Amino acid sequence: MSWFIFGALPVEKLTVKPQLGDTVIAADKGIETVQKFGLVPNEIIGDFDSLGYVPQSERVTKLPVRKDDTDVGYALRYAIENGAKQIYVYGSLGGKIDHTLANLQLCAAAAKQGVRVLLISEKQCVTAICDGTLSFPAASGRISVFCHGEKASGVTLKGLSYELDNAELSGDFPLGVSNEFVGAPSAVTVENGTLLVVWDSGVFPLENKIDP
Fold first, then answer.
1. pLDDT in the model for residue 206
2. Whole-structure pTM value
C-alpha cells in the first residue's frame, strides 16, 4: 500500500495515481487538487490559512497556525506514524524556496527512518536515500545527486553518463549535478550518509521501499 499527500501547489497531472487500498491525505489547500482529480481523502490536515476555510468533514484535523511542523510535514509524520513506507507527495516543489527546502529536509529525515518519500512535480522528482541503493530501469533524461549533510561516503553511480566508484560527496560542492541516464538500468548507492536524488519526471525507482 502506498500513501499520497497533496500539498498546496497546483497539480496538472498525476504521474502516479492512487489505487484501491492506498491512503490519500490532503494538506491544507491540497484538498483542491484531491477534489480536482475526483479522489476521496482519508484525511484532511492543515491550519487552512492557504485554503481560507476549514472543510466540513469528520476527516479534518485542524492544526494551529503557529506550530513547528508545516502542514505537509505534519501529514508526513502522520503517515509514517501509521506505518507508511512509500509516500508520493504532490504540490510540494517549485513554489516558495523556503518551503521547497523544508520539503527536501523532510524527505531526507524520512529516509533515515526507512521511509521513501517521492516529491513529484510536472518536470522533476526528488527522493532521498540513506545508507542504501536506489535503482532505476532503462531511462533517458537528467539525474542529479547531492549530499545532504556534511558528507556522504561510499557513493557509487552505475549506468549513468558520469559514473563514480566508492567516492565521497560533500555538502558544499555539487559534484553530482547534471548527470544523465543513458538508456540502461542504473543505480545510485551510498554506504554512509544521505543523498538527495533529483531526476526528470516519467521514470520511477524499481524498489518499492528503501533498502535496509
1. 84
2. 0.93
